[in-house]
Write a structure and sequence with these properties.
5-stranded parallel sheet; two-stranded antiparallel ribbon; 7 strands
Length: 173
Amino acid sequence: MKFYSGFSLKNEAYLFEAFLKKGAYTVGGFSYGTIKALKYTQEQLQRGNRIDTLQLLSPVFFETQGGKFHRLQMLYYAKNRKKYMQNFIKTCFMPYEKKELEFQKENKEELEELLTYQWSVPDLLELQSKGVKIEVYLGSKDAVIDVEEARKLFLDVATVIYIKEANHFLQLS
């Protein structure tokens, strides 16, 4: 299995062991990592390689937020990167206790991509037509993304696993 980490994170796959399929032909990603997992899957299929399952855990979804939201996020990040990241991680774990995480250096280009990414239903349908099973995992208490709108978008193109009371990290407590 190939796994892509969330924004500024590394080695957090252990938090999702209950959901991740360990197969050689499975690609997964968490939050920002879902964008990278999708792109990797598309590239592998274009090369004629096999991918059976694409797992999107709490996929980024800010499509319903306006430009003002995006600008404010970028402004806050530029003003105080450390405080922004602390608040971001705190929000990811709300309303539950924060777990230990490993971090890597993030950058504003990745944050920009995360905030502006638009999911393409035709791209997802194309993956399905090539035999890729798409699984999307969403937590109802996710304070980071617009869960309900994400659920609506993905219902037509994926198996959506909606976890009641789970946060962005899909924790229940």
